[in-house]
Design a protein that fits this description.
Elements: H1 7-17, H2 20-26, H3 34-45, E1 47-48, E2 63-65, E3 68-70, E4 74-76, H4 82-85, H5 89-100, E5 105-106, H6 114-120, E6 126-129, H7 135-147, E7 152-156, H8 166-171, H9 181-187, H10 191-198, H11 221-228, H12 235-245, E8 249-254, H13 257-265, E9 270-273, H14 287-298, E10 303-306, H15 313-322, E11 326-329, H16 331-362, E12 376-377
Parallel strand pairs: 4-11, 5-6, 6-7, 7-8, 8-9, 9-10, 10-11
Antiparallel strand pairs: 1-12, 2-3
This protein binds flavin mononucleotide.
Length: 388
């Protein structure tokens, strides 16, 4: 077992062990990847304020997200095709999250289905919804998530159409991979991935294939998304979805204070400040820079969460100290999954937890509730002085 001390260690193993097409799928942003890059480099701009001679015993990273107890304020973000990074990837990630005590969010575009994950876990997980043109299908999907006792519906708002990621087009991304000379040559070097996949429960989209009338080929993700995703999604439809669900709703993909106010108006329980990990609107602001203005607009009335760019416990600390009430990791857990399956996801969570715990101590804090702007050194003009 390799010694893992950082998320980067897991990323290197992920790259070595998983077919290029799926590594690239995780490791890309849209177009020039400016937003993808700035999600991480903007975190680096913020410094932590070191404090000394503070009793650091009895520390805890425990807190709550949407009223649910969490071992630390870090949920696993919904990630499509997780089951292509490792056989039965969604089941493995959900089990790791459950054992660790953090929420797992299953993507609509997962390989394992809602029912597969429910069967393999004992506690409720969260379900992420993409809205499709086919309203009957969406209604059935919501019912399936209810039947599986999912405890929150995460509705993603920033992907009605797909931002272009050049590598996916060049690699011919598909699930399962199409066997061309190029993919076969690459697969030949990833034998442990291949052996795992031979025994996998599923190799295509478990929530879709067999559940959408007339759709039996989802292999070409780009074409399928263009055809099926609902370009007419608006706030009225979001309010209806909330009603249909009847439980806790988290709106994902908010990057603007005006949209945050709309989310509040439709009665969401929480919002996720997110730019989809830099995979949608290239040129959009990083999530951590967008956070202060959104907190100012709605932070005292709705729970504000954040994702995009978190690669360490120090990043989690920065987001929480700025005022977020929870964070999500996408790639950080995917690197772990691709590297070592369930043990790799656990390892990613352990790395982040240890970094958060020790950094809190070195900042002189013993609880998540105690974190605040007083822990941060934020450069002047960090939010940007943008002309509308
Ligand atoms: C490979 C990949 C697939 C993703 N698929 C989905 C998805 O199906 N649904 C969704 O709402 N977000 C999806 N996202 C976005 C994540 O939920 C999350 O917003 C993003 O990964 C956060 O950025 P980070 O990877 O820097 O942590 C995906 C992200 C990645 C990297």
């Amino acid at each position: 077992m390799p010694v893992i001390t950082t998320i980067d260690d897991l990323k290197r193993l992920h790259e070595r062990r998983v077919p290029r097409m799926f590594y690239d799928y995780a490791e890309s942003g849209s177009w020039t990847e400016q937003t993808f890059r700035e999600n991480t480099t903007d975190f680096e701009q913020i410094r932590l304020r070191q404090r000394v001679a503070v009793d650091m015993s009895g520390r805890s990273t425990k807190t709550q997200m949407i009223g649910q107890d969490v071992a630390m304020p870090v949920a696993l973000a919904p990630v499509g095709l997780t089951g292509m990074q490792h056989a039965d990837g969604e089941i493995k990630a959900a089990r790791a999250a459950e054992a660790f005590g953090v929420p797992f969010t299953l993507s609509t575009m997962s390989i394992n289905s809602i029912e597969d994950v429910a069967e393999a876990t004992t506690k409720p997980f969260w379900f992420q919804l993409y809205t499709m043109r086919d309203e009957d299908y969406v209604a059935r999907l919501i019912q399936r998530a209810k039947d599986a006792k999912c405890s929150a519906l995460v509705i993603t708002l920033d992907l009605q159409i797909l931002g272009q990621r050049h590598k996916d087009l060049k690699n011919g991304l598909s699930a399962p991979p199409k066997l061309t000379a190029k993919t076969l040559a690459n697969l030949a070097t990833k034998w442990s991935w291949g052996i795992g996949m031979m025994g996998a429960k599923r190799r295509s989209f478990g929530n879709i294939v067999g559940h959408v009338h007339g759709v039996d080929d989802t292999a070409n993700l780009g074409a399928w998304t263009a055809e099926q995703f609902d370009p007419t999604l608006d706030w009225g439809k979001i309010a209806k979805l909330k009603e249909q669900w009847g439980g806790k709703v988290i709106l994902k993909g908010i990057l603007d204070a005006d949209d945050a106010r709309m989310a509040l108006k439709v009665g969401a329980d929480a919002i996720i400040v997110s730019n989809h990990g830099g995979r949608q609107l290239d040129g959009a602001i990083s999530s951590i820079r967008a956070l202060p203005s959104i907190l100012e607009a709605v932070g005292d009335q709705i729970e504000v969460h954040l994702d995009s760019g978190i690669r360490s416990g120090q990043d989690v600390l920065k987001a929480m100290a700025m005022g977020a009430k929870g964070t999500y990791i996408g790639r950080a857990f995917i690197y772990g999954l691709g590297a070592m399956g369930q043990a790799g996801v656990t390892s990613a969570l352990e790395v982040i937890h240890k970094e958060l715990d020790l950094s809190m101590a070195l900042c002189g804090e013993t609880s998540v509730a105690g974190l605040g702007k007083h822990n941060l050194l934020i450069p002047k003009g960090f939010e940007g002085d943008w002309q509308p």
